[in-house]
Amino acid sequence: MATEFTQNKDLVMVSKPKISVHTRIFLLIMFFTWSLALVFFALQYSREVDFKTEVLDSRLQMQNVRILDCLSKGKQITPQLLKEIGADDSLRVSVINFSGEVVYDTNSKNVKANHSDRTEVKEAIANGHGYTKRRVSSTNARQYFYSATRGDGIVVRTALPYNHTLADTLKADPFNSYLIIIIALLMTVLAWFAAYRVSRSVKNLRRFVEAAEYDDIDDYDTKRFPNDDLGEISAHVVNLYKNLKLASEQRDKNLRDAMFEQSEKNRIKHQLTNNISHEIKTPVHVIQACLETLENNGETLPAETKKQLLDTSYDNVKRLSALLADLSVITRISDAPEKIESAEVDVTEIIQKVVGEMEVFPPEKRLRIHVDVPENVSVKGNAALLESIFRNLMVNSFNYSGGRDVMIKLKDSTPGYYVFTFSDNGVGVEEEHLPRLFERFYRVDTGRSRALGGTGLGLAIVKNAVTFHQGEISVRNRNGGGLEFEFLLAK
C-alpha cells in the first residue's frame, strides 16, 4: 500500500524545472535576435567596406586613366604632372609592362622584382583593371592599397599607403553598428515582455496543477491568464477540469446518498420488521392465553371471568386490526405514493368532521376544541390522508397530552402553501424526545401508550401524510405548556 501511494504521489507531483519557462523563452528569442543582428551586422559591414573599397578603386582608376592619357601623348611622369592631374602627394605610381617588369616607379628608380604575380596586375591584364586591398610592398615594406589599369602594352598602377586617413576612409560607418545594437537592445526588451506574457499562462497552469494536487481549486481565478489565444486555451482547460471535478464530486455524492438511502431503507425495514413483530406478539400472546384458558377451563370458570377473557381478546383483536390498518396506510404512502389519488379537498370540512367525532365522548372526557380556520380552505391532495393528519393529532392530544383544550389554527397563507398549527395545553414532552416523536413505534411512555391501545404509528402517519402533500412538519413545547405542531400543506 505504501509503494502504491508513493507511485501515485510521484504521478501527481509536478517537478519544477531548473530553468523557468520565462527564462527559456527569453533565451531562445535572444539567441535568434542576436544571431540575426550579428549576421546583419556582418553583412552590412562587409557591404559598406566593399562599397568604400570600390569607390576608392574608382577614384584611383580615374588617376590611372589620366596618367595613361598623358603617357600616350608622350609626357613624362613627374611630380609636377601628378599635381596637374590632381594626384595625392602620397600617391605612388608604377608603370609595368605585360611581362611584369617595372618600367617606372615614383618611390624607386630601380625595382628589380617582377610583378607578373601581383593580383592587381594579373586582373588588369586580364580584365582591364584590378585592385588589392592590403599588401606589403617588397620595395619599402609598407602596406598599400593598389589599383591597376591596363593600357597599350603597359599597366599603370597607383597605390595609397595604409595610414590613419586611408584606414578611416575604408572603415565602416559606426552609425550603422550603433543602430543595429540599439535595435537589438530594443528587441531584447520586447523579447523579455513577450516571454513574460507567454510564460504567464504556463506559470498559472503550473500554479493550478499545484493547487489541484491539494484539491484547492474552488476559488482559482481564470482572470489571471492573459487575454490572448494561449490564455484563453489555458482558462478553458482550467474550467474543464473544474467542471469535471464538480461532476465527479456530484457523482460521488449521489453515490454516497444512494448508498446511505439504501442503507437507511434496509435499517428502517429491519427496524420496522422487529417493531411489527414485537407489537403483534403482545396482543397475539394475550389472545392466545385467553383462548387457552377458556378452552381448558371453560366449564369451570364463572360467567364473569369468561366475559372478561372474551372482552380482553376482543380488545386485542381491535388493537391488531388498528395496527394493520396503520401499517397499510404508512406502506401505501412510503412505497406507492403515485398510486394514491389526488383531488381538490376542502380542509375546513375535514377539520369539522374530525371535531364532530369528539362529540361521542362524555362531557367530562371531551376535549374543548377551538378552530380558527376560514371557510373553503382547500388543497389538492388525498382526503383520507388529510383526515388522518388531524385525527391522529387529535387522538394524540386526547390520549397523552393531559390537557383539555386543543387549538387548530390557519397561521399563514402563501402563494404555494397553507401553514397550520395544532396545539394543546397539556404537559408537553421532554426536549430529548421531541426529535423522535415522528419515528415509527416510538413511545415516550411505553406502558401508558399500550394501555391506551396506541399502535405507535399515529405521528409517523401524520409526518408521511404531510410529506405526501409536499409539506413539512415540526413540533415544539409551548411556553404555556403542551405541544404545538406546525405543518405546511401545498395548495
**H and E order:** HHHEEHEEEHHHHEHEEHEEHHEE
- Shape, principal axes of CA atoms: rod-shaped
For the record, give the distance between the C-alpha atoms at the N and C termini, rounded to a whole number: 58 Å
Strand content: 15-25%
Q: What is the mean predicted local confidence, pLDDT?
A: 81
Q: Which strand order does the major sheet show?
A: 2-1-5-4-3
- Structural category is alpha+beta
User: Which percent range fits the helix content?
Assistant: 55-70%
Number of helical stretches of at least 4 residues:
12
The tally of beta strands, per DSSP, is: 12
User: Unreliable stretches, pLDDT < 50, 5 or more residues?
Assistant: 1-14, 446-453
Largest sheet: 5 strands, antiparallel
How would the blueprint of this fold be written?
Layout: H1 2-12, H2 21-72, H3 79-84, E1 92-97, E2 102-105, H4 119-127, E3 129-136, E4 143-150, E5 154-161, H5 164-170, H6 174-213, H7 229-297, H8 303-335, E6 343-346, H9 347-357, E7 368-372, E8 378-381, H10 383-401, E9 405-413, E10 417-424, H11 446-451, H12 458-468, E11 473-477, E12 483-490
Parallel strand pairs: 7-9
Antiparallel strand pairs: 1-2, 1-5, 3-4, 4-5, 6-8, 9-10, 10-12, 11-12
Helix pairs in contact: 2-6, 6-7, 7-8, 8-12, 9-10, 10-12
